[in-house]
Amino acid sequence: xxxxxxxxHGAEVTITTRHxxxxxxxxxxxxRFGDESVLYSWLRNRxxxxxxxxxxxxxxxxxxxxxxxxxxxxxxxxxxxxxxxxWIDATDAIGLYAKAGRGGGTYAHKDIAFEFGMWISAExxxxxxxxxxxLKETEREQxxxxxxRNLTKINYRLHTDAIKTHLVPPQLQPQHTSxxxxxxxxxxxxxxxxxxxxQWRDENPGSxxxxxxxxxxxxxxxxxxxxxxxxxxxxxxxxxxERLALLNQTAIHQMTLLLADAGVQQLQGKQP
Length: 272
Fold this sequence. Notes:
By secondary structure, the protein is of the alpha+beta class. About 60% of the residues lie in helices and about 10% in strands. The protein starts with a strand and ends in a 5-residue tail after the last helix.
């Protein structure tokens, strides 16, 4: 996700994404109160170091607690100083990070940024939280609209006739439908992808994730439909072999309709 910004009490504050989490620019936050010496003063504080260390111990499995204890023991001494880079390098911290180049500076996870906001001004922290929450609400509304729009496009493609044949699930042979699978998840995998999760892993030994991580939007829609259908068939008391045959036929039919030539390009994010 690209950088976003909010206006907090007249100051423009950048928000970026790292490790799928929101990070807020501490550099932007201090501009209204001076320069980054404010940030360095905050980092010298023993309470700050304790807060950062506890946060890292909760959320960061690679955090180095011995280095944290060393910093904490030195905090309060006149000779003690601490920079974001020194903290990160010594402890493998993830709550803070320094970003170079345009839009660079020191960024912190939102939990830590809110704590820093309290240090510089209680009023500023309140406005920071208020504007951050407003941004997240706007993003949630936008995400919901995008999902509805894309599902509308996909459902429209269900009524088309053109076929992208190489993406249609293979029709399973009788020996496949006679097998009993250990999990219902693999039953759906066989119906849609023609293979189990283990078979996919064996074919892709260096790949990250699993077979469903590689699915495109059309396959994910089909998978959701198969899950609902499978639940219905289970309630009807059908055996796994019977359900697998019906699920595979349904997957072939739905993917045939979904993967129209024009539709494939849209589903994969390509321009026609």
